[in-house]
């Protein structure tokens, strides 16, 4: 048979082409139907293809027309894949019960008993040792499984796959109760093994009450079995979280042997040291609490009857390998209803003799009702005497108030009222509860702690810095509102929130620095002489740096103890990172711009508004300087034509022109007038320049204007001296006073420059 004809035959099987099948059956020899499909690398025969395509009529016609030996061969033939499946495997996977019946009917018409085991395709196993029954059960195809199982029930029920999984366990796991009941009620032996040491009873809650009841009745030994990890049936049932199997279990006849077995079962621990109550405490669902109550009540009854022979620690008092009792596990899982029930069993023993602090665990996991129950059941003096009841040794010795952020305000108030000495009690690292509250950012707890004991800020003066570093604005606001004189504290510590603040968004920084108290601190220096701007640049916080640079009145010229200004740091980081240079350019700041008399704040950058009305804005500075310069120019110009001693009426020359003091007067007056004119020129020029050049021209205008003032002063001194030269005492007195005033003015100017 040629390849194209084989291809057409398999295509007909895929699409159910009955006409082509009849034609092929009539014209082609039987052996031609054994050829494997050429389209998929030769993996499947024609029956495989038809089964996978669910072509029932095609299969019926094919199986009826081919001779029995050929049909047996095609149905039994396994594909050439990594799975090694035959046609019945594929039919079970697809879950079409009619096709399964069709394939099995081929063998029902013949004497099955005469077939050898190797000739029965329903007993064939795939690459993983699974029969067609396993495959049907894996897909929860119960009808198909029943059909397959009916062919060879005794053999099939004893066949396990490579993992050791029996059909019974798979039927229970996949919720196929009819298959499970049929196996459990049969007269012959069957396998109950499972993968990883599981038993069918472990998975009974997935099935029906009938299956569970049969397993308990016929296989009570499964109750005592544990897998390689020590997990028993109770561990598994509790994890599944269904109540009815426990009722069935406890309906068993209560003999002494059964009671002892049940006590052992409830106290049994897996490799992690967890008994079934630990598991119940870890898993929260609607029925878990009822399961735990049922088990505890049954244990108490059994223990009371057997107490003469059994002495052991109650399962709710047992600790696992981590030192956790079921109570601790319930608190950690926030399974508060179960925790309250366990506390009602034996509160004092559970709280007093826990390796770990139950109260701390309840607080840290927000179990408020459990906290209240413990606080109201044990007196304060007991808590004070036994520090282990309020401290967690595993967490650096924190007390319950360190963890109070996790509970409600009402619970926190109750803790402070009952355990007030803990407000100022540090952990092993020296951190106070208010430090932890600040770090977490719980504003309401900070408020409660400060109201309970205002001196708590004295014990932890830097507590507010944690809130700043973590960007908890509400917590910072709580410190500012409820801390006694927070502003004074910051100045005493030489530290402010602005030195530590860390937000993510520009808007948050703007809102923060707009707070009146914070705005006052924008130029405060810390113990190292650094301003908030120094710190922002040093931390490479480009967002906060931009906010500070565009905030009114932030001074960039203050030097730290290393002699560096914020501008110096800004220049360094701009040289290293182009993003910073782009930021400066975007907001109109040139850090390399050096001025003498004008401090480089936002108001000097031409961004001040009319509403701000600051005299430091370039426009107003320009106006002020121009008035002074014009006045000096007018005075010196007029003085040049109103000479001391007057003019000679005959020649028109100055009468005192030969005197040295007069010559000095003329030179000083000319110098003062020229300087004033240059200042006016600079100011006019600054009006048409960019911000940087404008600021520089105004700054240089101040320098030149100072020269004009000195010249005017000198002109006045020499003019008076020239005019009063005939009275020796008076001229020298005037000269001395003028010089004294001049030196005083110069000294103040130098001091101002030094500060800048």
What descriptive keywords fit this protein?
mainly alpha; Serine Threonine Protein Phosphatase 5, Tetratricopeptide repeat; elongated; 1% strand; two-stranded antiparallel sheet
Write the layout of secondary structure elements.
Layout: H1 3-15, H2 18-27, H3 46-52, H4 56-65, H5 68-76, H6 87-94, H7 97-108, H8 132-138, H9 142-149, H10 153-156, H11 167-173, H12 177-184, H13 209-218, H14 233-240, H15 244-250, H16 256-267, H17 276-282, H18 288-306, H19 326-332, H20 336-352, H21 358-364, H22 368-377, H23 380-385, E1 391-392, E2 398-399, H24 409-418, H25 433-440, H26 443-452, H27 456-459, H28 463-469, H29 473-482, H30 486-493, H31 506-513, H32 516-519, H33 532-538, H34 542-549, H35 566-576, H36 578-586, H37 618-639, H38 660-686, H39 691-723, H40 729-755
Antiparallel strand pairs: 1-2
Helix pairs in contact: 1-3, 2-4, 3-6, 4-7, 6-7, 6-8, 7-9, 8-9, 11-12, 12-13, 13-15, 14-17, 16-18, 17-19, 19-20, 20-22, 22-24, 24-26, 25-26, 25-28, 26-29, 31-34, 33-34, 33-35, 35-36, 37-38, 37-39, 38-39, 39-40
């Amino acid at each position: 048979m040629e390849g194209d004809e084989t291809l057409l035959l398999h295509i007909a099987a895929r699409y159910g082409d009955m006409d082509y099948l009849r034609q092929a059956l009539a014209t082609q020899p039987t052996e031609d139907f054994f050829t494997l499909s050429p389209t998929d690398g030769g993996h499947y025969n024609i029956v495989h293809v038809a089964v996978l395509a669910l072509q029932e009529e095609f299969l019926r016609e094919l199986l009826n027309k081919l001779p029995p030996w050929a049909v047996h061969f095609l149905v039994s033939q396994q594909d050439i894949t990594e799975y090694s499946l035959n046609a019945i495997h594929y039919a079970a996977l697809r879950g079409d019960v009619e096709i399964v019946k069709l394939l099995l009917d081929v063998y029902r018409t013949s004497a099955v008993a005469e077939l050898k085991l190797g000739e029965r395709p329903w007993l064939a196993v795939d690459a993983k040792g699974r029969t067609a029954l396993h495959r049907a059960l894996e897909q929860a195809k119960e009808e198909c499984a029943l059909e397959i199982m009916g062919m060879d029930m005794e053999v099939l029920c004893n066949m396990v796959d490579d993992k050791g999984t029996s059909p019974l366990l798979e039927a229970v796991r996949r919720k196929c109760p009819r298959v499970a009941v049929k196996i459990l009620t049969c007269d012959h032996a069957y396998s109950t093994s499972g993968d990883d040491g599981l038993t069918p009873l472990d998975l009974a809650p997935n099935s029906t009450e009938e299956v569970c009841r049969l397993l308990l009745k016929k296989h009570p030994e499964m109750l005592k079995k544990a897998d390689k990890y020590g997990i028993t049936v109770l561990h598994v049932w509790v994890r599944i979280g269904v109540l009815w199997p426990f009722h069935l279990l406890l309906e068993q006849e209560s003999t002494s042997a059964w009671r002892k077995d049940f006590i052992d079962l409830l106290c049994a621990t897996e490799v992690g040291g967890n008994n079934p109550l630990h598991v119940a405490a870890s898993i929260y669902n609607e029925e878990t609490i009822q399961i735990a109550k049922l088990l505890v009540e049954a244990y108490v009854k059994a223990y009371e009857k057997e107490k003469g022979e059994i002495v052991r620690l109650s399962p709710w008092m047992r600790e696992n390998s981590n030192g956790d009792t079921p109570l601790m596990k319930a608190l950690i899982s926030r399974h508060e209803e179960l925790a309250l029930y366990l506390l009602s069993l034996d509160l004092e023993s559970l709280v007093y003799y826990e390796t770990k602090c139950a109260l701390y665990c309840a607080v840290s996991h927000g179990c408020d009702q459990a906290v209240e129950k413990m606080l109201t059941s044990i007196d304060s003096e007991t808590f004070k005497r036994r520090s282990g009841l309020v401290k967690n040794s595993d967490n650096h010795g924190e007390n319950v108030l360190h963890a109070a952020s996790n509970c409600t305000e009402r619970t926190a108030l109750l803790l402070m009222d009952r355990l007030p000495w803990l407000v100022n009690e540090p952990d092993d690292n020296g951190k106070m509860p208010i430090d932890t509250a600040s770090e977490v950012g719980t504003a309401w707890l900070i408020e409660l702690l400060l109201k309970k004991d205002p001196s708590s800020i004295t014990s932890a003066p830097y507590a507010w810095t944690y809130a700043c570093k973590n960007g908890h604005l509400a917590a910072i606001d709580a410190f500012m509102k409820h801390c006694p004189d927070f502003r004074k504290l910051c100045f005493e510590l030489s530290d402010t929130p602005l030195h530590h603040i860390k937000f993510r968004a520009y808007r948050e920084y703007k809102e923060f620095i707009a707070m009146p108290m914070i705005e006052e601190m924008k130029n405060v220096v810390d113990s190292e002489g650094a301003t908030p701007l120094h710190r922002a640049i040093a931390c490479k916080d480009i967002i906060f740096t931009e906010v500070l640079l565009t905030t009114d009145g932030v001074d960039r010229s203050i030097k730290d103890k290393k002699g560096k200004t914020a501008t110096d740091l800004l220049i360094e980081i701009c040289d290293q990172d182009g993003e910073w240079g782009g930021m400066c350019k975007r907001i109109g700041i040139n850090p390399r711009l050096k001025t003498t008399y004008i401090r480089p704040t936002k108001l000097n950058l031409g961004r001040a508004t009319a509403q701000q009305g600051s005299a430091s804005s370039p426009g107003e500075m320009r106006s002020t300087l121009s008035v002074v310069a014009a006045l000096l120019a007018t005075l010196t110009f007029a003085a040049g034509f109103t000479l001391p001693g007057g003019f000679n009426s005959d020649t028109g020359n100055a009468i005192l022109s030969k005197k040295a003091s007069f010559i000095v007067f003329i030179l000083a007056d000319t110098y003062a007038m020229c300087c004033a004119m240059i200042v006016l020129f600079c100011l006019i020029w600054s009006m048409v320049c960019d911000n940087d050049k404008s600021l520089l021209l105004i700054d240089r205008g101040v320098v030149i204007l100072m020269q004009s003032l000195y010249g005017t002063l000198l002109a006045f001194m020499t003019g008076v001296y020239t005019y009063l030269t005939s009275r020796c005492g008076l001229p020298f007195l005037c000269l001395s006073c003028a010089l004294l005033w001049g030196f005083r003015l110069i000294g103040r100017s130098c001091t101002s420059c030094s500060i800048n």
